[in-house]
């Protein structure tokens, strides 16, 4: 069974630009969660989608948005990039929403904002 | 805000020794999970323990859960150099319909050959 795939692996953007990250979950998983990981803040929850509906959202500004498609693939978008958005963005899929089943993580997208 | 907090922040041991990491959390939970992360990679799920369970084992891993103290521990026995990684506990919250999974800041484990 293929794991969670995140693309691209690395991104370099400049301040003010926008970026779209992609996540393909494990086949059969309907829940996709996104996390931002930085050395200073650790792993911060961004949002979770289940069957194309946003179930939960973390404490991030509206510049961070996401969506999920009917095939469970998910994208997250960050508009008007700031230097502080530089981070490792991790996507995870699971069978059920919430913490009732293990999260399966991709290897992340490393975003650098200059 | 972080639901779980791991202790210690960093741990260095010799190969063959046991490593114990602790996690404390603030609100009642449905489930608690432990994950491992090797540098710059995604997290790997280790064990999920439900609120009505007290202990779970998986190979060299042993997880305990004490809901009265709102704490959990992860024990790695007979550690190996390959166990060098960061370890995170993750919790949900019992009161909401759709719980989000929140991670603690992690424990950095170094196993010296």
What do these coordinates show?
The complex is a heterodimer of chains A (114) and B (113). Chain A has strands spanning 5-7, 10-13, 19-24, 31-38, 42-50, 53-57, 64-68, 74-78, 87-94, 104-105, 109-113. By secondary structure, chain A is an all-beta fold. Chain A is globular and about 35 Å long. Chain B is an all-beta fold and 113 residues long. In chain B, strand 4 (31-37) and strand 5 form a beta hairpin. Chain B has strands at 4-7, 10-14, 19-25, 31-37, 43-50, 55-58, 61-66, 71-76, 85-91, 102-103, 107-112. Helix content of chain B is 0%, strand content 55%. The chains are: A mainly beta (114), B mainly beta (113). The interface between A and B is medium-sized, with 28 and 28 residues.
Low-confidence stretches of chain B: none
State the total count of DSSP E strands of chain A. 11
> What is the straight-line distance between the termini of chain B?
37 Å
Rg measurement of chain B, Å: 14 Å
Strand % of chain B is over 45%
Total helical elements of chain B = 0
Relative helix content of chain B:
under 10%
Annotation, overall tally of beta strands of chain B: 11
The computed structural class of chain A is mainly beta
Uncertain segments of chain A of ≥5 residues (pLDDT<50)?
Answer: none
What is the multimeric organization of the chains shown? heterodimer
The largest sheet of chain B, given as strand count, sense and whether it forms a barrel, is: 6 strands, mixed
- Using only C-alpha atoms, the radius of gyration of chain A works out to 13 Å
Order of helices and strands of chain A: EEEEEEEEEEE
* H-E order of chain B: EEEEEEEEEEE
Q: Greatest contact pair?
A: A-B, 28 and 28 residues
């Amino acid at each position: 069974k293929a794991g969670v795939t995140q693309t691209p692996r690395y991104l370099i953007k400049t301040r003010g630009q926008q970026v779209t990250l992609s996540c393909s979950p494990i086949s059969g998983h309907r829940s996709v969660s996104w996390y931002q990981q930085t050395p200073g803040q650790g792993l911060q929850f961004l949002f979770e989608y289940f069957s194309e509906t946003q179930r939960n959202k973390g404490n991030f500004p509206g510049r961070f948005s996401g969506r999920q498609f009917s095939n469970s693939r998910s994208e997250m978008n960050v508009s008007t990039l700031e230097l502080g958005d530089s981070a490792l963005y991790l996507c995870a899929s699971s069978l059920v929403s919430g913490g009732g089943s293990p999260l399966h993580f991709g290897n992340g997208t490393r975003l650098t904002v200059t | 805000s972080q639901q779980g907090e791991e202790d210690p922040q960093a741990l260095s041991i010799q190969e063959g020794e046991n490593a114990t990491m602790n996690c404390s959390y603030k609100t009642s939970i449905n489930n608690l999970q432990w994950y491992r992360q090797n540098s710059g990679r995604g997290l790997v799920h280790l064990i999920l323990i439900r609120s009505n369970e007290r202990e779970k084992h998986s190979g060299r891993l042993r997880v305990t859960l004490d809901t009265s103290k709102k704490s959990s521990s992860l024990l790695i026995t007979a550690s190996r150099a390959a166990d060098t990684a960061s370890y995170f506990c993750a919790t949900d919250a019992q009161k909401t319909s759709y719980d989000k999974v929140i991670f603690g800041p992690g424990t950095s484990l170094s196993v010296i050959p």
